[in-house]
Design brief:
Elements: H1 12-36, H2 41-68, H3 72-76, H4 85-119, H5 130-160
Length: 162
């Protein structure tokens, strides 16, 4: 198995997802700035669609890669030294916390984006759907931020401080 490009005993796709997790929050904040401050609803929509598509492709490719490599434990334990059973159990708990957010995020994003595309005019403008969209948007933002933070914590303990 190949090492990741970040220099740790991970996989290429895992490192790619880690970079995506680092980049997504600033891009998301910029998207929120475009809609809240600049009132550029079209740019906000386009950035959200781009983020959604990129994340969907990245996560799908990562999941396929993970299955081909034998699962997360095979990826985590391919480097030396091997993780002790205690450390592996700790990393597993971190992963499960991460998965709570990582699994809920696509559902929130799909609901937020689908409803926005159906209920906002083209070009997008505030309307009757704005209140629900704002609520779903903030829930999605919090969820993806927690996905990013917990994913980075998992990566740190699984690969950086072996």
């Amino acid at each position: 198995m190949q090492d990741g490009f970040l220099g740790y005993k991970s996989s290429f796709m895992l490192d790619f997802v880690v970079v995506a997790l680092i980049l997504i929050v600033p891009i998301l904040l910029f998207s929120l700035y475009t809609v809240k401050v600049r009132k550029n609803f079209t740019l906000h929509r386009n950035l959200q669609l781009l983020l959604g598509i990129v994340l969907l492709i990245a996560v799908a490719a990562f999941e396929v890669d993970l299955r081909l490599q034998g699962g997360w434990q095979a990826v985590v334990n391919k480097g030396e030294p091997k993780l002790s059973p205690e450390k592996l159990a700790f990393v597993a708990r971190l992963l499960y916390v991460h998965l709570v957010f990582a699994i809920s995020t696509p559902f929130l994003w799909i609901a937020t984006i689908t409803l926005a595309l159906r209920r906002f005019p083209n070009p997008p403008q505030p309307g009757p759907h704005s209140g629900l969209h704002k609520l779903l948007g903030w829930l999605s933002t919090i969820d993806i931020t927690l996905t990013s933070v917990t994913g980075l914590i998992f990566y740190y303990f699984a690969f950086v401080v072996r």
